[in-house]
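The following record pairs a protein chain with its ligand, inosinic acid.
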Amino acid sequence: MYKLVLASRNKNKIRELREMLAEVTDSIEILSLDDIGYEGDIEEDGSSYEENSAIKSLVPASMGYVGIADDSGLSVDVLDGAPGVYSARYAGEHVTYTDNNEKLLKVLENEDNRAAKFVCVMTLAVPDGAGVDLPCDVVDEELSRFATERAGRRVKVAAVRGECAGTILRELRGEGGFGYDPMFYFEPAGKTFAEMDHEEKNAVSHRGEAVSKFKSLIRTVFGGK
Ligand code: IMP
């Protein structure tokens, strides 16, 4: 049995990851940061979704565990990818989703190009000595160098990325979802993400795509169905 640690304390995230990976293999067990006794906060100071996800997965990896993490956000074309890695704190520290939505509506007020995409990156960080071999063809060399330097020990990192393209509306629509969902219009469905149910959103979302690629990665590394 391999122990993999999700760099999160969010019980829902942990349950979801357990359920999703149980479909792939019986040979892994998912632990949380609480399970390994890590009590600190993680400073997400990377300059890309990949770096931020790697930074999070490095917390367990630095303690000798195989680490898993994700990072996601909204990238608006005309804003050169902003809010991007700052999506959660676009309007400032300790703000609400509404604050962020209002700021983005305001910033794009006079803008006709409303193209944007949601991005979700998931990483698997494997430190030397964890008893797991990450095949060369899945290793992200650049990210592994970044992680090794940061952790002060050899860490190999694999990353998967899911994206979903849409447009930013001029008003909010729908009650479901979270974050920027009410302003993110997904043309093929003719709805915002906040007007979709979970299943509908997962089938087309950045997170759905990343999760599906991550399952393949886990299958490659740990075997499975
Ligand atoms: P993370 O928790 O560091 O990945 O930050 C994610 C932030 O990006 C959230 O706080 C949201 O603002 C935004 N975000 C990511 N995925 C979604 C989504 O599916 N819908 C709406 N907002 C999202």
